[in-house]
Specification:
It catalyses: shikimate + ATP = 3-phosphoshikimate + ADP + H(+). By secondary structure, the chain is of the alpha/beta class. 56% of the residues lie in helices and 13% in strands. The chain has a five-stranded parallel sheet with strand order 2-3-1-4-5, sandwiched between helices. Helix 5 crosses helix 6. Bound molecules: adenosine-5'-triphosphate, (3R,4S,5R)-3,4,5-trihydroxycyclohex-1-ENE-1-carboxylic acid and magnesium ion (MG). The site of adenosine-5'-triphosphate has 19 residues, from helix 1 and helix 7.
């Protein structure tokens, strides 16, 4: 195994589960959104406001490609990291890819209290989440080694299922 990479939509729990998984496996944890913020010296809403989504995606691609080059990381990605084919290629080559799935209803619940997601600063965030999932679900599936349902499951249970499913995989 190279890295263990979590993909999925906003509110699927990539950052939460990734941190727990890294602790369990005693591996370093990286979150591509946090890495973008650190390298930029600004938070994600600021990057969207000043540089636009395109500017953010450029930064995201640089970070995804460099983190996927590492070894032995647990990596939580941003929800839109699968949009660029170059990123999908880097993620696929970077290790085992786990798609954390969440229904739109659960995504709405889990993102409602947080103002840190610029794409959800709209009158109808539920519609945005539904539209994004329709576009991105096939892309998450395209690169996933395993798909894990997170609806109505506490983070600890999700972590256990990831570990079991990864153990059962044949080597690539
Ligand atoms: N399995 C779960 N059950 C209940 N709540 C969860 C679960 N996973 C995550 N959460 C909660 O949902 C919220 C969003 O989780 P998190 O930030 O980990 O999502 P994310 O996939 O990293 O989203 P983003 O793509 O925006 O970075 C957090 O408040 C977290 O505590
Ligand atoms: O789904 C998305 O496009 C995003 C998800 C977040 O993780 C951040 O990467 C950013 O808010 C954009
Ligand atoms: Mg996250």
């Amino acid at each position: 195994m190279r890295n263990l990479i979590l993909v999925g939509p906003m509110g699927a729990g990539k950052s939460t589960i990734g941190r727990l998984l890294a602790k369990e496996l005693r591996l370093p944890f990286k979150d591509s959104d946090k890495e973008i913020e650190q390298r930029t010296g600004a938070d994600i809403p600021w990057i969207f406001d000043v540089e636009g989504e395109q500017g953010f995606r450029e930064r995201e691609q640089a970070v995804i490609c460099s983190l996927c080059d590492a070894d032995g990381l647990v990596l939580a990605t941003g929800g839109g990291a699968v949009m660029r084919p170059q990123n999908r290629q880097a993620l696929r080559a970077g290790g085992r890819v786990v798609y954390l799935h969440a229904s739109v209803e659960q995504q709405i619940d889990r993102t409602a209290r947080d103002r840190n997601r610029p794409l959800l600063r709209t009158a109808n965030p539920g519609q945005v989440l539904a539209d994004l999932l329709a576009i991105r679900d096939p892309l998450y599936r395209e690169i996933a080694d395993v798909i894990i349902e997170t609806d109505e499951r506490p983070p600890r249970m999700v972590v256990q299922e990831i570990l079991e499913r990864l153990e059962a995989l044949a080597p690539r």
